[in-house]
What does this fold into?
Amino acid sequence: MTVSSTTSKVVYNGDDQTTEFSTEFEYLAKADVTVTFTDANGTETTWTEGTQYTLSDAGTGEAGTLTVITTPTDYTPASDTKLTILRAPSATQDTDLSLGGNLSTTVLEQTYDRNIMVVQRALEELDRAPKYPVTESGAADLPASTTRANMFLAFDTNGNPIAAAGTSADLAPVSSFMNDMLNLGGADAVLDHLEATTIGKDVFAAANADAALDTVGGIKQGKHTIWIPAAAMRPTVTDGCAALTDVETTAGKPDLQVLDFDAGATEEAAQFQVAFPDSWDEGTVTFQAFWTTTATGTTGVAWGLQCVAVSDGDTADVNFGTAVVVTDDAQSAAEDVLVTVESAAVTIDGTPAAGDLCFFRVFRDTDDVNDVNDDMAEDARLIGVKLFYTIDARDDA
It folds into this structure.
């Protein structure tokens, strides 16, 4: 036979029903044909003759037929799959011509045909390989495997291949604008290219979001505090604590402004108001009480806090919400500054909304001596209350 066609490969698209495929090329032996199945995900699998398919007899000088096996397992190529049939004879010469014997033209022709088929196999593989343009010569070699391991293929100023470090993100195509920036000499050069301000450069260089906010003076979302000193409170009209008192520790040293809460059966209280910022999430709050005593002792005191929110146009004649209490023991002497632990969550009654005025009632919980451990006989002097609240926006806009 002759090898009059350069075709040595054919690719078919599956359709869920076709089971017979022409090779469109002749072949001398079934072993010279390789069949590759590509599934819908692009995964390639080499099929085996006799398992997934059969071939018509080889060496007839005509194109053969590949028949897919359908039983007991059906290998019919489905839609979105491909079947590639390739002539790929091994690069060997198996014909042995006897010295002085008869010279068979059939044997010679098959030998020449096989050589052409091997050449076509090489040409098919070369056709799938990257090549230098025909105008170039002296193609450079790739770097050694030890140099290119775990590296990316790149090209130097002469267009020769080099091994370059990087990440998978470096493989993404970029615009000419981004390409210019990637070729700049560093972050400062990039920011200058973008005409960034000094503060913009500082934000760009920040290690994280919090650092960036610190740079521009931004407020972080989350937990915040408000300090309410005793001077911002008033004794309640009913069962109020003592009026604001100035206590001199020693001349020239800090004075304490305090509200005195008596021990005894009457639960004394004070009130204050807070208009939270609109960035407040309108949820619960917690608190710590800052206080001192009038005498040395190690007995305890209990501080309670309750609150109600009032909206624009609504009456202030409403009940406070459920109180939450924290306890603390005197550490030592009078005028020691004492701080309670942070309380449990205080629910603000009245369905809080942005713009509400929140009324707070702080009291000494003396009537719960068994449960709350308020057993101090002296006055408890409230210095102030620290409120903890949560914001869910960076400003009140």
About this structure: The mean pLDDT is 84.
